[in-house]
Amino acid sequence: MTLPNLRGECLLDEQDLRLIRAAKRGDTEAFTTLVRNYKHYVYRTAAGVLRPGPDAEDAVQETFVKAFTSLRNLKEERTFPTWLATIAVRTSLNLLQKRKRFEAAVRDEDKVYTAAVPDPTGRVDTSLDLAAALSRLSPEHRVILVLRELDGLDYKEIADVLDIPLGTVRSRLHAARLQLRSVWDGERRDPE
Fold first, then answer.
1. CB within 8 A of 99, min separation 6: which ones?
2. Helices then strands, each counted (H, E), the chain
3. CA distance to 19, 56, 127, 168, 185, per residue, from 163 (Å)
4. pLDDT at 50 over 50
5. Looking at residue 10, what DSSP letter applies?
6. What distances in angstroms separate CA 78 from CA 15, 18, 20, 151, 155, one per listed residue?
7. Predicted confidence (pLDDT) at residue 167 exceeds the cutoff of 60
8. Which pTM does this prediction carry?
9. Domains of the chain and CATH, by start
10. Max CA distance (Å), the chain
């Protein structure tokens, strides 16, 4: 079974490597076990781009479908978590683009309705504060923070997942942290 470390990243063990090899040979039960082992990892990655909810759940399903159909192309089994994160990020970004096009079409037709639901207790959990702060970041800043801070990928792995230069990873991560700090501080000082 995949063992998460303290940062939440997935560490492959021999059992996972055997499952990956079996799934590559077409063993659907092995792949089902991999899905069970990695579903939270993929969801967290997708939610980093799309925010938690139904869109992230759709991205998880689509990610695993894509992974199943292209698993035979995976050259090095030890890169499975990074490879899966790459599929999740790209799938999530595609869904985000589709959603933006849909929302733009709906706005053009003046059919957008929004409603605010106040918290009856007036208190907000810190994890909800952080989720709200993350949701105010751009998708590229959200995803880079999730890949680094929650998934525990190193800079090289992030560069591979996002298909960007290593220097861009560093600068984008720095900018994302500054933006998150600014949003977080603003929400803490000025609760609505």
1. 50, 55
2. 8, 2
3. 27, 21, 30, 10, 31
4. yes
5. E
6. 12, 11, 9, 15, 17
7. yes
8. 0.60
9. 3-114+122-189 (1.10.1740.10)
10. 56
